[in-house]
């Protein structure tokens, strides 16, 4: 009983202090972001040639306060001006063939503590800081020098780049940090980033990968909550408190655990696809996901390796089966909380939804445990499972 109570209370306490982004927060292009296109006349403070073309450029709000202006000539030379609200640190825009951060080339600009404007090209060889190499990259910058300008609360990065072929839709990576780069130009870790598909053939054609990845994140979260947050805990509760309904408890237990495993496996598969697509920096969430996948596979294998109840190995198998089940449920719940915490589109809905499921499950456990202590339900001493039983995920304690 203490194991279950500690598990659920810990998860409930963790879930009470989650930072969530509201629906009108950073990832929504609202009217105030749209107005950034008309806040300033760029020709008033940008040097030529950017001042000559900037007022006639298509202007597209992308993400947070990031705004993109662009134009392209017949030689596939594109003039790009990206702006964002700025206080400290750096802002950057990168270009990637597949929308991934690794392997992309980026232009990053900042205003130093002494007020000097800095802009560099970076090549992102990997996710570690020393793998973000300054003054390297695959962008074919033109002879016109790149420019960084601070006007009011906005920072502007302007540069010209030539692409080998004209591609209407390009993956653009946006990122920022409030910490300054080092004196040698080494970037600090980004505070946030996203990938956007920009349709450069239109004046207002930007569609965020977040529209797609948001749906994928939703599917991943729903599968994980249904599997690890609902079906598997319910299956464990049935195995503990429904023993007086033999063999009904066994069939229900098997059904819930098998279905929960399928949903959990689907969540892992969707998570792998999502990771390969956007390359998020989530080592803890990813590591725990792989860990509980291994544990769940071990539980399925235990279904087929269950010894006869008359053998001495049966007792050790029960210990293994019960504790692997408990550990799996614990880390499954913790990983759900971590996933909600890191989701860009978390919102209060996820917090309320999983909090409700967790609270109801805890309440059911407490009530049923009271009945069990009184001997009204779940007495395993007078009921034994059928001889062909091979329950894979029993968590009876």
Automatic annotation (TrEMBL):
It is found in: Membrane. Residues 64-177 form the DOMON domain. The keyword Translocase does not apply. Keywords: Electron transport, Membrane, Signal, Transmembrane, Transmembrane helix, Transport. The chain crosses the membrane at residues 221-242, 249-275, 287-305, 317-340, 352-371. PROSITE patterns: CYTOCHROME_B561, DOMON. It comes from the Eukaryota. Residues 1-23 form the signal peptide. Its main location: membrane. This is Cytochrome b561 and DOMON domain-containing protein.
């Amino acid at each position: 009983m203490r194991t279950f109570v500690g598990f659920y209370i810990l998860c409930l306490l963790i879930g009470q202090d989650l930072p969530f982004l509201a629906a009108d927060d950073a990832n929504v292009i609202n009217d105030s972001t749209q107005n950034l296109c008309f806040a300033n006349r760029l020709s008033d403070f940008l040097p030529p040639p950017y001042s000559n073309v900037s007022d006639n450029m298509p202007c597209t709000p992308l993400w947070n306060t990031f705004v993109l202006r662009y134009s392209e000539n017949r030689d596939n030379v594109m003039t790009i001006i990206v702006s964002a609200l700025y206080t400290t640190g750096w802002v950057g825009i990168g270009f990637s063939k597949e929308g991934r951060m690794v392997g992309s080339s980026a232009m990053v600009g900042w205003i130093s503590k002494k007020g000097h404007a800095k802009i560099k090209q970076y090549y992102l060889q990997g996710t570690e800081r020393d793998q973000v190499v300054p003054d390297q990259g695959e962008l074919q910058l033109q002879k016109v020098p790149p420019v960084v300008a601070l006007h009011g609360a906005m920072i502007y990065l302007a540069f010209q780049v030539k692409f080998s072929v004209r591609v209407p839709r390009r993956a653009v990576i946006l990122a920022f940090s409030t910490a300054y780069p080092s004196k040698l130009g080494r970037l600090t870790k980004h505070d946030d980033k996203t990938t956007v598909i920009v349709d450069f053939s239109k004046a207002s054609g930007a569609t965020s990968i977040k529209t797609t990845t948001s749906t994928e994140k939703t599917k991943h979260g729903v599968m994980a909550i249904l599997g690890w947050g609902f079906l598997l805990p319910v299956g464990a509760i049935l195995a503990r408190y429904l023993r007086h309904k033999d063999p009904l408890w066994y069939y229900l237990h098997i059904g819930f655990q098998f279905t929960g495993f399928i949903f959990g496996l689907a969540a892992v598969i969707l998570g792998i696809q999502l990771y390969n697509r956007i390359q998020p920096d989530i080592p803890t969430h990813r590591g725990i996901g792989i860990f509980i996948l291994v544990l769940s596979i071990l539980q399925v294998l235990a279904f087929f390796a269950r010894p006869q109840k008359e053998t001495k190995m049966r007792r050790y198998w029960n210990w293994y089966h019960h504790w692997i089940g408990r550990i799996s449920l614990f880390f499954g719940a913790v990983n759900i909380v971590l996933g909600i915490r890191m989701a860009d589109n978390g919102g209060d809905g996820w917090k309320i939804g999983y909090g409700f499921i967790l609270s109801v499950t805890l309440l059911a456990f407490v009530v049923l445990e009271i009945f069990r202590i009184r001997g009204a339900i779940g007495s395993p001493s007078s009921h034994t499972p059928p001889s062909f039983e091979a329950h894979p995920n029993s968590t009876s304690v």
